[in-house]
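in:
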């Protein structure tokens, strides 16, 4: 904006000047930051892939008939000042290769605790005492069975942490391998 008789009201404004090239310390910082972001993304990819593979393996476990033996709401408090938590206390019987066995896992991690009693009541109503259903038995450990296999959702969502790996590596690559430009005079 070079008009005759008008002076620049902000002569030292950084928005009007070109950015200085990053220093070596700044480039190292960006390279390390990018690697940290990529490593965190890689950690989450590993965790999600492990969950997905475990859920996929559970779907190969043989299904056998089972009968719900107990199904009631369990309540706990960590101390007298904490709110109550609820979960379904469940057990079921099944037969594996001629031997009667019992299980107590709704899912791989058991029955989840919740501060909402309605959720526990709903789970109890889904599996009332005497209900005949199917459970999946781990052939490597027939004493372990679940009524519901884990979800395959982690495998479908693995693309999200992959974006952090790609982005972090891109930041590191650009910081490490771009040539330092010469300052304009």
């Amino acid at each position: 904006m070079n008009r005759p008789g008008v002076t620049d009201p902000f002569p030292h404004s950084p928005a009007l000047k070109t950015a200085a090239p990053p220093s070596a310390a700044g480039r190292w910082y960006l390279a390390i930051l990018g690697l940290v972001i990529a490593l965190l993304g890689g950690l989450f990819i590993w965790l999600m892939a492990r969950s997905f593979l475990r859920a996929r393996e559970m779907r190969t476990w043989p299904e056998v008939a089972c009968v719900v033996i107990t199904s009631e709401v369990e309540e706990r408090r960590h101390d007298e000042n904490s709110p109550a938590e609820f979960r379904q206390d469940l057990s079921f019987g099944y037969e594996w290769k001629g031997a009667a066995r019992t299980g107590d896992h709704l899912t791989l991690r058991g029955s989840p605790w919740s501060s909402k009693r309605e959720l526990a009541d709903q789970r109890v109503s889904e599996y009332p005492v005497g209900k005949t259903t199917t459970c999946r038995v781990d052939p490597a450990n027939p004493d372990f069975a679940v009524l519901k296999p884990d979800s395959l959702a982690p495998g479908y969502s693995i693309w999200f942490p992959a974006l952090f790996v790609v982005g972090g590596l891109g930041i590191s690559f650009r910081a490490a391998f771009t040539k330092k430009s010469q300052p304009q005079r």
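note: Residues 62-148 form one domain.
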